[in-house]
Amino acid sequence: MDAVLRGVGDIDHLAVAAFYLGSFNKRVSGDAFAGALFTSYALHVLMKCFIAMRAVRRLSEDRLSGALELLLVTPLQPRDILSGQRRALRRSFRASITWLALLNIALIFVIHGSASLDVGSSGRRMFTGIFLGGILALFADSLALSWIGMDMGLRGKRQQRAVLATLGRVLLPNWLGAFLLVFVGLSGARISETGWAHLITSWFILGFGIDLVLGLRTQWRLHRHFREIASGSLSKEVRTARADSTARFSFGHRALDSAKP
Questions:
Q1: Domain boundaries, the chain
Q2: Is the pLDDT of residue 59 over 90?
Q3: Contact 87, 55 (CB under 8 A)
Q4: What single DSSP character describes residue 98?
Q5: Which residues are within 8 A (CB) of 212 and not within 5 positions of it... i.e. 6 or more apart?
Q6: Does 137 have pLDDT greater than 90?
Q7: Within 10 A of 216 (CB to CB), how many other CB atoms are there?
Q8: At a CB cut-off of 8 Å and minimum separation 6, what does 85 contact?
Q9: How far apart are CA 78 and CA 75, in angstroms?
Q10: Mean local confidence (pLDDT), 89-111
Q11: Residue 5 pLDDT > 60, yes or no?
């Protein structure tokens, strides 16, 4: 996981450098800009998926191994445990999120610095709003994903299911909205620039509203009911996996890695 994240971070750095240098090119083509736009969106989505995976993994593994049970019997408060998890997530993703924000800013320079992009003044304003909104959405989605991911990791589900549940709650409505926007754009429907501005603004407001409602509600629930959630029953498959992982350390189990006496 860490190696993959470092690789994604390197891609971010190269993409930012390329787009920033390209912002001084007066002959940027429309196809190149469209490719840059979709590449930026894909990198944002990929980063959010990694955040969900990391948020779920730590608490899920601690609960599966029984380490979380040891924490629950100590004087350590749930707020301290959650605060530590949040700090670890910020430390892991701070650099990559910063580079993605710089990527969006570089694209704004491309829009305003290239005379060959025939988008007009209203188009430049609209794309500037999209890129700035993407930066805000990156921070808002990251916050919501971290809280909901920790909640899903505590619920005793398989990590894959917990990650999918986290992404579905936070990002699925936005992905459906983006698909609808692309579908409307490709359908040839006659929509004015003002109409597009309203549609895109509504799309961002939907995402911010989901982040705010789900993120704050999950934060409130974890702070007040952390022990109840963490001590809840594990799913049947997780209980089986946990039994299999601990059986190797049983002295009466014949599948020990050590040689027989």
A1: 2-235
A2: no
A3: no
A4: H
A5: 140, 144
A6: yes
A7: 13
A8: 55, 58, 59, 146, 150
A9: 9
A10: 87
A11: no
Angstrom CA distances, 124 to 100, 121, 180, stand at: 20, 5, 22
- How confident is the model over 2-18, as a mean pLDDT? 52
| Structure token digits, residue 34 | 């469209």
Look over the chain and give the mean of its residue pLDDT values, rounded to a whole number: 77
Among 131, 133, 132, 148, CA closest to 211: 148
Q: Could you give the residue ranges of the DSSP H alpha helices within 155-191?
A: 159-170, 172-186
CA 195 from chain center: how many Å?
29
Q: For residues 72 and 69, what is the distance between their CA atoms, to the nearest angstrom?
A: 5
- pLDDT tens sequence across 155-176: 867 888 999 999 999 999 888 8
- Backbone conformation region of residue 114, classed left if phi is above 0, alpha if psi is from -120 to 50, else beta: beta
Q: Which of 237, 247, 244 is nearest to 158 (CA)?
A: 237
CA-to-CA separations, 36 to 45, 96, 147, 159, 219, in angstroms, rounded? 14, 18, 31, 33, 35
Q: Which residue carries 């470092």 as its tokens?
A: 6
The full 3-state SS of 128-154, as one line of letters, equals HHHHHHHHHHHHHHHHHHHHHHHHHHH
Question: How many Cβ atoms sit within 10 Å of the Cβ of residue 219?
Answer: 19
